[in-house]
Design goal:
Arc Repressor Mutant, subunit A; 29% helix; Nucleoside Triphosphate Pyrophosphohydrolase; seven-stranded mixed sheet; two-stranded antiparallel ribbon
């Protein structure tokens, strides 16, 4: 078989996953403590090298599933990182992805196998290589997306209250919203279905539960509707 491009240098290609989760109060980041060199014993994003017979997206899905046991979750390519000496072990080009998962859904036993731990997004340890840059970039991307898309629904249970949704948006944007204005704004999008059920954990009276209406969202999106959250 004829080989092409033999005169060019060869590099390793990796994927790194920035995994966000929401615990009902704070936005969190899932990190692993490396048990292999280089940087053994330090905190890192979950990553892995691209295999010959998989696409970059498939590699990211594999890495995410390996750590969390989850598939079919929100996963989006973020950016490529290719500084010459970014990894002291070898010349490695990394493609970063960020994922949004419901903390209650991930596999804790798998996390323990990889020395994984959740950290609040405002208080996590220094990471290896350029992983801090990746996290910062992913958080800014998440904020931009959440500004005009209902991306945050990936982080909460299928049934939720308006106060729970507000706490999520406050965690993403790192600021408080006026309760009345937030409720009015979010309901004006007409993408939430009010249920007859109530959440009575927070108060005796309870708060009505809602569900995200994906079908109605798609219809409005195709019509050019603006979902900008500005409260």
């Amino acid at each position: 078989m004829v080989k092409y491009y033999t005169e060019y240098d060869k590099f390793l290609v990796a994927v790194d996953c920035i995994i966000f989760g929401f615990d009902g109060k704070e936005l969190n980041l899932l990190l692993i403590k490396r048990n292999f060199p280089p940087a053994k014993g330090e905190w890192s994003l979950m990553g892995g090298f691209l295999k010959k017979k998989e696409s970059i997206d498939q590699a990211a899905e594999r890495v995410l599933f390996k750590l969390t046991g989850l598939c079919n979750v929100f996963l989006e390519q973020l950016q490529g990182y290719g500084e010459i000496e970014r990894d002291p072990g070898e010349r490695v080009i990394s493609i970063a992805y960020y994922a949004l998962i419901n903390i209650d859904d991930y596999d804790e036993e798998l996390a323990q196998q990889y020395n994984a731990k959740w950290f609040p997004i405002n208080d996590f340890p220094k990471l290896i290589f350029d992983h801090n840059m990746m996290v910062d970039k992913a958080l800014r991307r998440l904020q931009r997306k959440a500004q005009n898309q209902p991306i945050g629904f990936e982080l909460i249970p299928p049934k939720f209250t308006i106060p729970q949704l507000q706490r999520l948006y406050e965690a993403i944007f790192r600021k408080e919203f006026d309760k009345r204005n937030f409720r009015k704004k979010i309901l004006s999008f007409h993408v939430l279905k009010k249920l007859e059920e109530k959440d009575r954990e927070s108060s005796k009276k309870g708060a009505y539960l809602y569900q995200f209406d994906q079908k109605e969202y798609n219809r409005l999106l195709n019509s050019g509707y603006n979902f900008e959250v500005n409260v």
